What we know:
This protein is mainly alpha-helical. The protein has 2 domains: 6-215, Hypothetical protein af1432, CATH 1.10.3210; 231-417, Hypothetical protein af1432 (Orthogonal Bundle). It has helices spanning 6-13, 32-50, 55-78, 84-92, 94-112, 122-131, 138-158, 168-180, 188-192, 203-212, 231-248, 253-265, 270-273, 278-281, 287-309, 313-322, 346-350, 364-383, 389-402, 412-417, and strands at 19-20, 30-31, 334-337, 340-343, 406-407, 410-411. The strands form 3 sheets. A two-stranded antiparallel sheet has the order 1-2. Strand 5 (406-407) and strand 6 (410-411) form a beta hairpin.
Amino acid sequence: MVNIRKGLLQFIFSGSYMKRWNDKLRPLEFIEADKQAHKMIVAWLLCRLNGGGTPAQNLTLELEVIERAMFDYFFRLVITDIKPPVYYRIKADPNDYAKLSAWVLAELEPWLRPFDSGATGFWKRLEEFVQSPDKTDLAAQILDAAHNYASSWEFGILKGMNSFDPEVPEIEKSFQDKLARRRNLTGMDKLLERDNGDSAASALGGFARLCGQLRFQKRWSQTPRIPETSVMGHMFMVACYSYFFSLAVDACPARQVNNFFCALFHDLPELLTRDIISPVKKSVDTLGGLIRNYENEELERRVFKPLRAEGHNTLADRLGYYLGLEVGSEFHECAMVNGKPTRVSFEDLQTAYNDNAFDAKDGKLIKICDNLAAFIEAYTAMRNGISSDHLHQAIWRIRSENAKLSIGDVHVGALLADFD
């Protein structure tokens, strides 16, 4: 049995502090957790468009992309104080890089070693990635393309404010060259296509840019917090938590992948309705249903219809599966039974449907991770000296609602009790 520990959740959350482009004039703060979420949304699009193999091969590709992205994120969290020019000089010397990688692994071991499951387990794969990060396979190409897309998207926002900076043309040229190298991937041309005034940009590129706007949308908008978190960053936290909870309950690889991406997209409708806190949604009996109906209408108009019009029916269908459109909620367990999304119980997932063939997805597990991410946002703000009724109420509510809750062998109430 693998226990989820307080330290792991806080370590993953620490990317919400990590600022990007902090040597440039910025119209808003760019945060590492937000960038990682945007990167993984683009990586998901590219995985679905470039898989092309058997279902088993495509599943392996998505799992590799998820794991390597998290490995890279963890690596960045540890070496956050090492500036890129210094890091690249270290990496150029095999002996120096070996020392750096050994130090990084030593820092990560207390949190991540428990998830190892033998010679080919999680920790072994993490060690191999940290020691030999320069891969050229399809998963590496997709992650490189997604990384540069998300970073270039940020640069496009701050470029105009830094016209006086002599580094700007060089940075712009670097992004253009890096993205051009990945135009061999199906979908990259469409992702990079812009509205030129004559015709609308592609639906694929429009979707990626639309998702990027979730960086602008702050959670707990009426409550001061340190750090502030965006809807985008929150989605990435929930995705990472869902992946580790999936490992803890021995979910099959299909559930691991589906849970990560379902969590990554679970707040996508808030791009259309803004972040409405739970007490407000529950304050009027019919309000939750009205919001849900409006979200579904706007999703169809602004996301699904454009994607289908461009021929991306499988992308639209998959996104709908993650959002639980056919079973009523993204927080309902479901599996593909006789080719149709079917609502099942968590106990069914753990037994009859815990097999890649059923393409199953958790609900309760993802909702728990959503609550944990909200709890840590509130808890961290209070530990940083911010106190408000909203934060106290959120912490009390989440602790109360989850005090006796377990998921598999993970006792959520005991986990929350670790936060003094």
